[in-house]
Amino acid sequence: MNQKIFSAPYLLWMLLFTIIPLGLVVFFAFTDSNGAFTLENISKVGDYASTLFKSVWLAAVSTVICLLISYPFAYIISRKKDHQKRIMVMLVMLPMWMNFLLRTYAWMTLLEKNGLINKFFGLFGLGPFEMINTQGAVVLGMVYNYIPFMILPLYSVMLKIDPRVVEAAQDLGATPSQVLMKVLLPLSWPGISTGITMVFVPAVSTFIISRMLGGGANLLIGDLIDLQFVGNSYNPNLGAAISLVLMVIMLLCMSIFNQFEENEEAALL
């Protein structure tokens, strides 16, 4: 009885902010403006297949870049002294104390044609380079904004890896690449899977970054969903259908990744 009482707030929270919103998305996706059942909204999603593919591709590229940067960085932090760990973790989290929009606006100032980066290159007679309103700028914005979500899970997992395990592998003749592939990667896999999920999911559905750094030529699926709920193109039914398809795709991606993770764990056992 006590367990049911204590779990009631969590159940209420899930009902109000998870189950009911998802139910509304499904309802609007399969109905028209009059509330009648239709599959037209779902069929129209195919018209935006290229945008959806581009969104998944850019999110995947951003996730891979975050992983490649974060993995050695998290390992280095985990091997520092306690006071150094606290300082470095604080530096990782420091940009997150600033508003998301302000951080993205800062990159607009840096990347624009007359921005600080082009002015710096101009000192050496280079440029100006077209950096703003490109896919590269969108990827850069995603990496910058979401990389803490990759570093922190990796860091928390690597803290639990006993340095003596690495030393034992080295004493047994393992090369640095073998230590990485046979020891560090398997032991840090939970942090890798968590980090990939925490970066890929918001990256694939972002719309602020693509709008501010990518311009109108780099519209992503998040922008399309947003446009269905504001302005002259107001169509919540189509917006809900695109959102539903996007959620299904993300669930499929996460399921495939989790299956790969289970196979890795089974191989270790």
What do these coordinates show?
This protein has 269 residues and is mainly alpha-helical. The protein contains 14 helices and no strands.
Short description:
With 269 residues, this protein is an all-alpha fold.
* Form type: globular
Strand count: 0
The separation of the N and C termini measures: 39 Å
Average of pLDDT:
88
Q: Give me the Rg, rounded.
A: 22 Å
- Uncertain segments: none
Following the backbone from N to C, one meets helices and strands in this order, namely: HHHHHHHHHHHHHH
Structural class, by secondary structure, is mainly alpha
Please report the number of helical segments.
14
Give a quick set of tags describing it:
single chain; 269 residues; mainly alpha; 14 helices; globular
Outline the fold blueprint.
Elements (H helix, E strand, L loop, with lengths): L1 H28 L10 H5 L4 H30 L3 H12 L6 H12 L4 H7 L12 H12 L1 H11 L4 H9 L4 H12 L1 H16 L3 H7 L6 H7 L8 H33 L1
Helix pairs in contact: 1-14, 3-7, 3-8, 3-11, 5-12, 7-12, 8-11, 9-10, 11-14, 13-14
